[in-house]
Amino acid sequence: MLLSLHYSLWSYRGFILGSVKREFQSRYRNSLFGALWTVLNPLSMILVYTVIFSHIMRARLPGVEDGMAYSVYLCAGLLTWGLFAEITTRSQGMFLENANLLKKISFPRICLPVIVLFNAGINFAIILGLFLGFLLITGRWPGITLLALVPLLALQVMFAAGLGMLLGILNVFFRDVGQLFGICLQFWFWLTPIVYPMTILPPPIQQLLAFNPMTALMQSYQNLFLYNQWPVWSSLVPLLVVGLLLCTLGLRMFRRRGGEMVDEL
C-alpha cells in the first residue's frame, strides 16, 4: 500500500509541484503586500496578545524575568499552532474545493492532501525563518536543542495530516463536519496552553488538559525556544500513537471511499 502510494506521488510530482506553485502565486496575485500577509496575520495576533497579557503573564513564566519572554513564549505556541490549524482547516475542504478538478482530470486523489501539506509548509517556513532570525539577533538562539524542532514538526504534521484527511473525507459526505470542526478548533486553541502557561491553572485543570494531545507538543516548543530545553520525549508518545492511528484510519477510509467521493461532490 505504502509503496504504491509513494509511486503514485512520485509519478505525479510535476502535477503536485505545479499546483503548489500556482496556489501560492494566486493567493497573493494583485496583492500590494503579497507574501508579507503570511507574516502580518500571525504578527498582529502576537502583538495583541503581548500587549494585553504580557504584564499579567510575564511574572508567571517560571524562571524568566526579562520583558520579551512572553513574546517568545507566544511565538513558540502561536506559530506552530498556526501550522496545525492551516493543515487541518484546509484539508477538511480540499475535496470540495477541487470538485471540478476531481471530476474532469484523472489523477491520484492522494495528491490533494500532499499539496495542502506543501503549501502550509511553505507558509510556515517563511514565518519560522523570521522568528529564528529574531532569536538570533536578540541573542536567544536555542543552540543545539534546535535540532529537536525536526522531530517535533514531523510529529505535528503527521497528526495534523491524519486528522485533516479524515475530516476531508467525512466533510464530503456530511457537510456539517467542516462547520463543526471550525467551532471545535476555537475551543481546542483555548484548551491548549498557548497564551497562558499551565502553571497558573489549578492542579485538577492541569490534569484534565494533559489529556489534550496538543498540550505536550506546545509545551515542548515553548520549553525549546524559551528555556533551551530538550523535549520530554516520553510525554509525546500519546501524540505519536494517536497520529499513527489517524493516518492509518485516514488512508484506509481514503481507499474505501475514494470512488464514492466523486459521486458525492
From TrEMBL:
It is a multi-pass membrane protein. The keyword Metal-binding does not apply. GO terms for cellular component: ATP-binding cassette (ABC) transporter complex. Keywords: Capsule biogenesis/degradation, Cell membrane, Membrane, Polysaccharide transport, Sugar transport, Transmembrane, Transmembrane helix, Transport. GO terms for molecular function: ABC-type transporter activity. One of its GO terms (biological process) is polysaccharide transport. Residues 33-257 form the ABC transmembrane type-2 domain. It is found in: Cell inner membrane; Cell membrane. The chain crosses the membrane at residues 32-56, 68-89, 110-137, 143-170, 230-251. Belongs to the ABC-2 integral membrane protein family. This is Transport permease protein. It comes from Pseudomonas fluorescens.
